[in-house]
Amino acid sequence: MIMGKLAKVRLVGIFCENTGDDPGANLEVYGWLMANTDTAPTWMWQVGDDDGVNIAEGTLYVINKDVTVHVRDGQNLYIGGELWDDDDISADDYMSRPGGNWAVIPLNEITPFVKYYEIWFQESDQKIRVDYQVIEEQL
How far apart are CA 30 and CA 49, in angstroms? Predict the structure, then answer.
């Protein structure tokens, strides 16, 4: 018998709200995004600084990656990570808070109804949003 819940987490994608003062029409985004519990990390997207994805302002970079995470009684689900914008002529822009940007989802908020989460990342006037969906996976 499973104690806790199984959460199906979908990483929908990364939306570029504003390229700001970045040279060019795109942000070149790299980093990592996860779905974690207090005891188990689950990688959902990981891109190195030499392989950043170009995301034009006002567009969504679609990922659509699904994972199932066992959230045990007394634990939370954490979704988020750390992102950077790659710059060729200056230091890369760290768009996260120290330690990453996370949404904390208590066990009782994981239900059979899809919930949508937006996690914002920003450096200066460069702004991106990561879209997740979470639903309880029924056995």
Answer: 6
Q: How far apart are CA 85 and CA 29, in angstroms?
A: 5
DSSP codes, 8-65? EEEEEEEEEEE-TT-SSSEEEEEEEEEEE-SS---EEEEE-TTSPEEEETT-EEEEEE
44: CATH: 2.60.40.150
Domain that holds residue 90: 5-136
Using the predicted structure, report yes or no on whether residue 94 has a pLDDT greater than 90: no
Number of domains the chain is built from: 1
Render pLDDT for 110-135 as a digit per residue (tens, 0 to 9): 999 999 999 999 998 899 999 999 99
